[in-house]
Amino acid sequence: xxxxxxxxxxxxxxxxxxxxxxxxxxxxxxxxxxxxxxxxxxxxxxxxxxxxxxxxxxxxxxxxxxxxxxxxxxxxxxxxxxxxxxxxxxxxxxxxxxxxxxxxxxxxxxxxxxxxxxxxxxxxxxxxxx
Length: 130
What we know:
By secondary structure, the chain is mostly helical. It is globular. Helix 2 runs antiparallel to helix 5. The two termini are 31 Å apart.
């Protein structure tokens, strides 16, 4: 997909698509996250537990915001896609706890819900490599 360029729109480009533009725009954040998560040695229980706890801190508020926005009415298989129960069970199985997160998520509109789902699915695919 080619987009028409406008000088004040950082997501428009003449020669690359929106996917590539978004990837370039979020590359520094992805590198920082990879650096942070790369410190975990996932072959040890203690580090794996801490990795899951950190993941839960991001995932749980996001899934709650998606549910408040009515994601189940937008995605037929939301019940199979949501991971909150699984990550809670995994943390509990490793004798960990999940600290309450004081993260205020804004109300999500339909485009934001779809964007968040895209990111979650991407993280699911990335996690398959871990």
